[in-house]
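SAMPLE LOG
Freezer: B-3
Tube label: C17
Construct: single chain, 189 aa
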Amino acid sequence: MNIVILTGSNRKNATSTRLGEYAVEIIKSHGHQVSLFNLYEKPLPFYSPDEKQGTDENLANLNSVMLAADAIILSTPEYHGSISGVLKNALDHLSQAHFSGKPVLSISSAGGAVGVSSLTQLQTMVRNLHGINAPEWISIGGAQRRRFEATFDGYEEYEGSQDVEERVQRVLGSFLNLAQTLTAARNAL
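STRUCTURE (predicted):
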């Protein structure tokens, strides 16, 4: 199974991107093919329906990997109760052809306790693109973000450090089961 993780932050060491990188490790350990498309490293031009942007290398690459994906993970920081602008811009460049019938997991990192607003908005966008939202999502916030900060050395203990990893692994396992089921059903058609 081929899974694409689209991370949407303008920060070099964003916790939402590091959460996406952690998801890559987990998915690979389950034997699946996975790639991470980092919008910080591969910025896209501003979406404009009036302009032809087919010559942009990053946009062409995004289009290609998203069309080839069997399942998608969208990862965003929560800014002012919403998804990041760079992720919204990337989604504006995409269409139902990229999402239709594919399972999608939404994940977020928020400065506050949880990033529910951004996750709700992502699920609405996925529905409009005819993707299939995973029944669970991942939101880290507050002290839970510590595990995914650039300065985390793996030896620090903080409240809930093991719980957040176990929760992320459990939700990713559930998502992979859903993705395998839906991919098998799509391939049987």
